[in-house]
C-alpha cells in the first residue's frame, strides 16, 4: 500500500511536469491543455479560483463531494480509509447512450506541500479490491492517472490544475468534447469553480 500511494503521487507529479502540453482553449479563468503520447491522451484543465489553496485542497480531496460539481460522478462511497492521507472509493458514473453505467474502484492519495512553492496534491488511480469485484450491472473502468495540483496565489486565491490520462474506458465521455461538439470539460470546470467559491 505504501508503494501504491507513493507511485500514485509520483505518477501525477510526472504527468504534470511532462513537456509538450498544447493549449486547446482559453476562457476567462479556465485553460484546457492536451498532451498526446502514442495511444495515451492526457488533458489538463487549469482553473483560477478565488479561495485559499488549503480550502480548495480540503474540498477537492473529499471525493464524496465530487457529485456536487461533476455530473460524471453519480455515487461515491468510501470503501476503505487506508490512512489519513489515503482512501479507496467506489464510484459509479451515469450510463452513456447505448452503454452500461460505469464504475471505478480508485485510490485517492492526498499530500500537503512540504515547501512553500510546492502544490497541494490529490492523486487518483484505479486499484483492484477483492471485496468489490466487477458487477454485471456496471462496466468496470480504469483510471490510469488523474488528480489535482493546487498552487497558492496569495492568501485568497489559487490555481487548480486537474489532470487526466485518458484510456479507452473514459474516451466516450471525452471524444465528443475534444472535437469541440460538446462543452463537458468546460462546463465541469465552471461547476468546479462555482462549487469551490
- CATH fold call: Alpha-D-Glucose-1,6-Bisphosphate, Chain A, domain 4
What is the class in the CATH system? Alpha Beta
Total beta strands: 10
* Share of helical residues: 10-25%
> What is the element string, with H for helices and E for strands?
HEEEHEEEEEEEHH
Distance between the termini: 34 Å
Oligomer: single chain
Average per-residue pLDDT, rounded, comes to: 89
Structural class computed from helices and strand pairing: alpha+beta
The fraction of residues assigned to DSSP E strands is: 35-45%
Please indicate the count of domains.
1
The number of helical segments is 4
Pfam families: START
GO molecular function: lipid binding
Protein name: ACO12 thioesterase
Organism: Cnemophilus loriae (Loria's bird-of-paradise)
Amino acid at each position: 500500500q505504501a508503494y501504491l500511494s507513493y507511485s500514485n503521487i509520483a505518477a501525477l507529479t510526472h504527468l504534470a511536469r511532462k513537456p509538450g502540453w498544447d493549449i486547446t482553449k482559453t476562457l476567462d479563468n479556465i485553460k484546457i491543455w492536451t498532451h498526446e503520447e502514442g495511444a495515451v491522451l492526457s488533458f489538463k484543465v487549469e482553473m483560477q479560483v478565488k479561495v485559499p489553496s488549503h480550502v480548495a485542497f480540503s474540498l477537492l480531496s473529499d471525493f464524496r463531494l465530487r457529485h456536487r460539481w461533476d455530473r460524471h460522478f453519480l455515487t461515491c462511497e468510501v470503501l476503505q480509509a487506508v490512512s489519513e492521507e489515503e482512501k479507496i472509493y467506489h464510484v459509479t458514473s451515469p450510463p452513456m447512450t447505448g452503454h452500461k453505467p460505469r464504475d471505478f474502484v480508485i485510490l485517492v492519495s492526498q499530500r500537503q506541500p512540504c515547501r512553500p512553492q510546492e502544490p497541494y496534491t490529490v492523486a487518483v488511480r484505479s486499484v483492484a479490491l477483492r471485496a468489490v469485484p466487477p458487477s454485471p450491472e456496471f462496466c468496470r473502468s480504469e483510471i490510469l492517472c488523474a488528480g489535482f495540483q493546487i498552487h497558492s496565489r496569495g492568501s485568497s486565491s489559487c490555481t487548480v490544475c486537474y489532470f487526466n490520462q485518458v484510456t479507452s474506458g473514459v474516451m466516450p465521455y471525452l471524444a465528443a468534447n475534444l472535437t469541440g461538439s460538446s462543452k463537458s470539460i468546460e462546463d465541469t470546470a465552471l461547476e468546479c469553480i462555482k462549487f469551490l467559491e
